[in-house]
Amino acid sequence: MKIPDGISLIDFTNEYKEKKNVSNAEIADKAGVSRTLVSRYLGEKYESNPEKIEKAIIKYFENLDEEYNPEEDIKETVGEQTEHKEEPPDVKNNRISNFYESRDAVNVVAVCGLCQENISLGVIVGKSGYGKTHTLKQYAKKGRVCYIECDDSMTSRDLVDAVGLSVGIPRGSGGTVWSRVQAIKDFFDINEGYLLIIDEADKLLTKYSAKKMEIIRTIFDQCRVGLVVAGEPALESMLKLYLPRFASRADYFIKMKGLADSEIRDYLKDLNASEEVLEIIISRGTNAQTGCFRLLNRTLKNILRIKTDNSVITKKDLNIASNMMML
Fold first, then answer.
1. What are the tens digits of pLDDT across the range 115-168?
2. Which candidate, 53, 234, 213, places its Cα nearest to that of 148?
């Protein structure tokens, strides 16, 4: 496969990955290079001379037998808000949009941009399924963004290792937690313009220990890096109760509101469905108990799996799709 002229290797590879559902790990394994190097290069976070990794990726494509012609205009990531436009659900082609610029998504992207540009601290909270993580991951496709998704099992060392890996500091390099934090701070001081995103941050906090979040606060306080922490709604009260020094530093705060009726109607404007079906689908995205984008999207995907043509989606189709879900 030959890479077309006029398209950067990074854009071509990322477009190919999306269209062909190929992972960084597959490319790295066949190219004979580190998966971390591939991830950092394609995420535009590779600070060293890229010649070796570029030759490996080019060789990977040259060894492919298939032909691939990317779209004429490769879409920009969500970071370029003025140019980004996702397509609505398309029943005929059995696909739905990977990203929708709801009011919540626009606000999240705006806060990330402000924090990165002004070396500020932002806090984002939202219920599960509101699209918080998906939006943050979209923003993380931009250059100089480090994204960490936390979980309950993380120790302080795990967290520091995760941040270190995101900037290219190997886990096996040894040293204490303190020494690794110093290396991370040195990196951010030398390489200005970075944003550090700590997602699912509420999983790092308990009433018995705030040490892990204090490490993140220290990194923000002592070096030049923007910071966004995000999590469930409980994160707001937890920060105020257990880490008042952290909460008082927040320059921006967003509490996600979820989808509005009008947003879902806009998202589904090309969906070939009866009004009755549309009302039920909308309720799955907006009702106060369980409504969220995740439930809406799962419903749409199940409907599109069972539809074999572009005929009107009926109540029967919706019921069949719903029977495959835990509602």
1. 999 999 999 999 988 889 999 999 998 889 999 999 999 999 999 999 999 988
2. 213
Report d(CA 115, CA 144) in Å as an integer.
Answer: 12
**Measured distance CA(142)–CA(137) in Å, rounded:** 9
Q: What residues contact 279, with CB distance under 8 A and at least 6 apart?
A: none
Residue 97 has what DSSP assignment?
-
How far CA 194 is from CA of 78, 104, 110, 117, 225, in Å, comes to 17, 23, 15, 8, 5
**Under 8 Å between Cβ of 312 and 297:** no
Per-residue pLDDT, averaged over 277-306, amounts to 83
Task: Determine the length of the chain.
Answer: 327
Q: Take residue 230 and report the two structure tokens written for it.
A: 């995000």
Pairing of strands 145-149, 121-125: unpaired
pLDDT in tens, 63-97: 876 655 554 443 443 344 334 333 444 433 434 45
Q: Where in the chain is the domain with CATH 3.40.50.300?
A: 103-255
pTM of the model: 0.66
Hey, what CATH topology would domain 103-255 get? Rossmann fold (3.40.50)
What is 9-62's CATH number?
1.10.260
Three-class DSSP category at 73: coil
Intervals of CATH 1.10.260 along the chain: 9-62
pLDDT at position 5 is 66
